[in-house]
Amino acid sequence: MTYYKHKVIWITGASSGIGKELALQLSEINCKLILSSRRENELQKVKDLCTNPNNISVIPLDLAEHDSMASLVDRAIAEFGKVDILINNGGISQRSPIIETTLEVDRQLMEVDYLGTVALSKAILPFFVKQQSGHYVVVTSLMGKFSSPFRSAYCGAKHALHGFFDALRLEHDKDNIKVTMICPGFVNTNVARNALTADGRPQGFQDEKTQNGLKVNTFASRMLKAISKRKFEAYIGKFEIFGVFIKRISPRLLHYMVMRSKVR
User: Fold this and answer.
1) Which of 11, 66, 105, 176 could form a disulfide with 87 if both were Cys (CB 3.0 to 4.6 A apart)?
2) Can you tell me whether residue 157 is helix, strand or coil?
3) pTM to 2 decimals?
């Protein structure tokens, strides 16, 4: 993990799940962390659990408040004098049939998962260019590579992230700016419980596939290895990751396999 030593790493969605576990594991390395999410009290709890909490700063952030990103970037840079890696991990999921899902839910997923991530990433981009280095890490999903029923808004937002960051990688290769897209399969976090349903209310319960997914500490460890190798994309999960490769060979075959899986 020498890649992370002496670096300043900013993690969004750091109050729980993948973001929290990344913070715990990275705090054991000689680096500095900035933890962000909407819930400042939960961020403070994560900080207190970390090794070397003196090397950790907490900055509350709401991905739906796009106009606040420039000032938050200024604050983040002021904390430790720079940012080397931005891990865009914050976001929400969705579980509902298309025909029942209000347009407001579609809009909310795009506002938070896509535009919120883009707004923060664009706000820090001039600093990365001036610094002539920077590493964007974007936690999307396998649903950013192929789709699944009852996740239409989520799939749309995650697909959009791939389009945007692939373009950013091309435009700023000359500035030594790296982009790693992390595509999780099922990971045992609260993502399903917090997923929005057709009318915008949280689902409130865990689903079987998520419950049986990778343990979050295992996922975070694999994710950190992929980032350190500066991979363009990393697919991290169990058997579901093969959907990416099957789609390349036969989209129709993948369609039938997803239908037979009866994933919800």
Assistant:
1) 11
2) helix
3) 0.96
Helix (H) / strand (E) containing 17? helix 17-26
Q: Quick one: tokens of 255?
A: 């369609």
Mean pLDDT value across residues 86-95: 97
Residue 261's pLDDT is what? 85
Q: What is the pLDDT of residues 227-244, one digit of tens each?
A: 999 999 999 999 999 999
Write down the number of H helices and E strands in the chain: 11, 7
Phi then psi dihedrals of residue 131, to 5 deg: -75, -20
- Banded model confidence at residue 209, pLDDT cuts 50, 70, 90: confident
CB 248: neighbour CB atoms within 10 A? 11
Whether residue 238 contacts residue 213, with contact meaning beta carbons closer than 8 Å, is answered with yes
Distance of CA 138 to the CA centre of its chain: 5
- Which CATH fold would you assign to the domain 2-261? Rossmann fold (3.40.50)
154 is catalytic: yes
DSSP 162-174: HHHHHHHHHHTGG
pLDDT of 126 strictly over 90: yes
